[in-house]
Amino acid sequence: MISKLQFENELDLIIANAVREDVGDGDHSSLACIPSSAQGKAKLLVKDTGVLAGVAFAKRVFTYVDPDLKMEILLEDGAKVNHEDIAFYVEGASQSILKAERLVLNAMQRMSAIATKTAKYVKLLEGTGTKILDTRKTTPGIRALEKWAVKIGGGENHRFALYDMIMLKDNHIDFAGGIPQAIQKTKDYLKTTKKDLKIIVEARDLNEVQTILDCGGVHRILLDNFNYQESKRAVALIGDQCQTESSGGIDESTIRLYAECGVDYISSGALTHSVSNLDLSLKAL
Predict the structure, then answer these.
(1) Which residues does residue 220 pair with via DSSP β-bridges, in sequence order?
(2) pLDDT of res. 261
């Protein structure tokens, strides 16, 4: 994953762009009927069940919009929530609260949905030693929020983007002329550029697993669309030579079975691309 500084920068960019997109030259609905001097208070009301995420992000948004806004946080990120729970209160200029409202809700609803789904997968993996990973199948522009939500839900982050890890998948291998060529070219590239990046290589069958092992120097082998029997055989073949990861259509009904094959990680795009927002509301008091 990227550094903390890079992550913080991503959050700043998300907030600045989202406010630009939503506010433009002004929140004219509020400007038209609410005096700039008006003070107000609102609560973040939970209208669903799940895992709360995005409270810390909401604080950043409120501070960006108006540093004088004050939050009273009752529930932190990662808390299990139910209908009628109150996550926090925010108090200050009414115009500022309304300006930040939609960004806060959009982010928190999405992040809470992802954290909820991740927590469910983590629960299904209990006792196996296998960890759940997200992917790059995220919403363009808000990847940092979605990967943050996965962490809040108890999952692990895969690479953040194309620049912080090397993953040689089927198309890379085919374009490079084969697994040995792709791996060797990658090693040469890393040596030339003096980049310290881990290498993951995708295998489509057991023969490819053996070929990858013969090349050496790989951090993890990705077992793509292997069935249970093939996965067990691959894990036994790999042993402690490198890490193992299963992927490809693994869902709630199969994740435990793949974990019991002994893989170190299971990656799931569904954590971020197949969720329904948690129902949250910001209500004036």
Answers:
(1) 200, 243
(2) 98
| 202 labelled catalytic | yes
Tokens linked to 223? 């077992």
Burial call 163-173: b when 16+ CB within 10 Å, e when fewer: eebbbbeeebb
Q: Rounded to whole angstroms, how far apart are CA atoms 173 and 212?
A: 11
Catalytic, 10? Answer no
Catalytic residue selected from 41, 59, 120, 137: 137
| Mean pLDDT of the region 88-108 | 98
**Residue 224 appears among annotated catalytic residues:** yes
Angle at the Cα of 267 from the Cα atoms of 264 and 270, rounded to 5 degrees: 150
Q: Kindly name the residue from 202, 208, 245, 264 that is annotated as catalytic.
A: 202
Residue 1 has pLDDT above 80, yes or no: no
Q: What pTM value is reported for the model?
A: 0.96
Token pair for 226: 């292997």
